[in-house]
Amino acid sequence: MTIRVVIVDDQAMVRAGFAALLSAQADIDVVGEAPDGRQGVQVSRSTHPDVVLMDVRMPEMDGLTAARELLDPPPGVVHRPRVLMLTTFDIDDYVYEALRAGASGFLLKDAPPADLIAAVRVVASGEALLAPSVTRRLIADFVQQRPAPRKDPSLRLKGLTPRETEVLELIARGLSNQEIAGHLVLAEQTVKTHIGRVLAKLDLRDRAQAVIFAYEAGLVRPGDSA
Questions:
Q1: Segments of the chain scoring below 50 in pLDDT
Q2: Is 157 left (phi over 0), alpha (psi -120 to 50) or beta?
Q3: 145 — alpha (psi -120 to 50), left (phi > 0) or beta?
Q4: What is the pTM (predicted TM-score) of this model?
């Protein structure tokens, strides 16, 4: 199956470089490009990509606003692509907000070419891009500095079984599926099943949103470790 990608960045050289690199892969097809968020949304709505590479800072409409429009579309718009944020810095206000909005992760613009290719494939498969420990560091920093207004997400935890709650806590503490399996003495496939149920019950898109939810619900706090 070919992965359809749209690249949204205000720098033409960046778009061209990313497009050339990704198009050279047998399983990736760049179906559109745009120089700002507004046009990025329009191109994405017309081409239905699997993944949108979205720059954070752009004129007309920034990447965060565009990501929100793509991930929370108006009535009648069914298609919702995976959004991978592109940033110059590894910690950025917009990145955290984008993750909360439903983006699947972020990638540094100066990342090695192999990382970009791998990132597109990971996000297209439905996983969060970030390594668990990086996700935890990024989100912990912003939850600590600028906690988001809560609608008491702790109440939603009551819908989870004790084991599912335990798995969610370990995800937020930065453990991989394999490490969670070892910690709980479970098969890795069983852990994946639990994670799938957690995401479904809490209406979360991926691991990144699960980590954010765990922090905002008070299940874990910045500085906690496994």
A1: 149
A2: alpha
A3: alpha
A4: 0.70
Tally Cβ neighbours within 10 Å of residue 160: 18
Q: Which of 157, 161, 54 is nearest to 107 (CA)?
A: 54
CA distance 166 to 31: 41
Look up tokens 């990342």; give the residue.
Answer: 111
Per-residue confidence (pLDDT) for residue 160, from 0 to 100: 93
Residue 224 burial by Cβ neighbours in a 10 Å radius (0-12, 13-18, 19+): middle
pLDDT tens digits, 105-118: 888 888 889 989 98
Count of Cβ atoms closer than 10 Å to residue 189 Cβ: 10
pLDDT value for 100: 75
CA–CA distance, 61 with 129 (Å, rounded to integer)? 24
Answer for the pair 120, 97: CB distance below 8 angstroms, yes or no: no
Question: What pLDDT score does 106 carry?
Answer: 80
